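Reproducibility note. Readers wishing to regenerate the assembly model reported in the main text can use the exact inputs given here. Chain order matters: entities are listed in the order in which they were concatenated for prediction.
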Amino acid sequence: MSILVALPVVLPLLAAGLSLILHRHRLAQRILSTVSVSAVLVTAVVLTVLVDHRGPQAARLGDWPATIGVTLVADRFAAMVLSVSAAMVLAVLVYAIGSPMARDTAQHFHPVYLVLTAGVAMSFLTGDLFNLFVGFEVMLTASYVLMTLGADRAQVRAAMSYVVISLVASMLFLTAVALTYAATGTVNMADLASRLTAIDPAVRHALSLLFLVVFGIKAAIFPLFFWLPDSYPTAPTPVTAIFAGLLTKGGVYAIIRTQTLLFPSSGASRLLLTVAAATMLIGVLGAIAQNDVKRILSFHIVSQIGYMIFGLALFSAAGLAATIFYIGHHIVVKTTLFLVAGLIEEREGTAALDRLGGMVRRQPLLAGLFLLSGLSLAGIPPFSGFIAKLTLVQAGVAAGTDVVVAVSLVVSLLTLFSITKIWAGVFWGEPEDAGLQVRPHPSVALPRLMVVPTVALVAISVAIAANAGSLWALSERAAAGLIDTGPYLEAVLR
Amino acid sequence: MIVSLAVLAGVLYACGVYLLLQRTLTRIIIGLVLLGHGANVLLLVAGGRSAAAPFGGAELIGRVSDPLPQALALTAMVITFGVTALLLTLAYRSWQLTANDEVEDDIEDRRLARRAERASEADESPSAADEVLA
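Running the prediction on these inputs yields the following structure tokens for the assembly.
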């Protein structure tokens, strides 16, 4: 049983090592990455089913007692997020392999990508604060390298600010871990859950805020999001897509995990509600002001993070379930949109709105893919985004937070507006500035290995909407597991 | 011992933050290194009073210093070391590309700033015309 919990971390790390040895054989590297990432996906899905039936599963590495050694824990929430993430990792990997600019020809793309996968899995599965730090570092260090694979001027400039901001957050994280250890004498999260209730409430509150700031920087919530729209768009598309889908969600996951397990609150948190509303609003306003497809989408990430924090801030079963459902929907849709943006760039040589136009006639498939996922992002029925937002709004109304609900609805409208802006700029009409237009080899069809994963992701997003009933029930059970932490604690400390 | 270590951690944090706020990449990197050292010293302080080296079995608990924060600090050091090496490479690459050690402005930010400047100039010019008329 416990081996299953460790596999998503161990497998990609082993494969990364092998991949380094095989660096002269591109085909072997590609097969190795695809096989190991697929194995992670299968493990994650099996784990989700298993955990759903038998409750949280824990693995004690090296068989040290839980409070001293490193523990990996899978509960419904972790297993669900991991499954969705693994599916994205696989889709983006195929997309990167299929890209004719061959993003994966950079010598060390495959090993680093596998290390990123291991880091993501470790951050989701860890049951230990310090190990969470290590997981984040593994994930982030791999992301620094992926971001600068091209090593051109724009990438180095963007990566520099990204690395420095992330490192400041990491050092704060380390400080928070040290202070937590000083206050309680443990870094095991299950153990902390009981020990933190015994310490001075003022210290407890300070620690809670410190963790909120640390993970807030990583999740890009207001007012800590400024690094994101600057750094994400310059990276190669497959890299941006995986960052957009997974990295900030690692931060959101950590906020939810720490706030529910370590610092549970009985009612809605006014601080988190304010942060959520501000994040939604500022993010979407930023998106409206931009001219580049990837920058618009980057600002949308910020805005969407606000919705997830909103559900958490309610601290109700319905709110948390809505947040979990929202995370699943968002990871899929956001990754898809970036992959579509990458295809646009691939086709037309640019992603700037004023240089594009009329693509709906030339690339009807691309237009359809963008429309489906864009409308889903804005929350138009019957797509998955509608269900996610509906459940969130219902939970918000039930908790009496009418102002934030109103903000979230206005932001939905503004999201729709900026999606239509992309639609009008890219797919309709003619380029504003015909002189700047670039159109490389218009007769060549889009590379199939890039289109297939994009279509698959859109299909997943439609499947989420079609199976919303059972997925919502699973989200509700996962949320119940976050509120009643008994089974989680028992699985770790037994 | 603990007081002096706590003061040391404080000084390291202060110097680290000061250097971090500079515009030169090398200083920013040194600032991050100092911050990392500060955090590691803090981890050691978190382990409580220093005592004999923690070798032996469980019967020694209470008489030796706490080994867990030491293990944590060791891991954190390795991570900081690796990331610092990467940062130095990036800074070197940045210097190769721009022949400059300063943090560059974001291109989009500069574009927006220029647009704002132009807008304010446009606002000023009609008022200047009004003055001439008056």
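We highlight two features of this model. The beta strands of chain A are 57-60, 71-74. The two ends of chain A are 15 Å apart (CA to CA).
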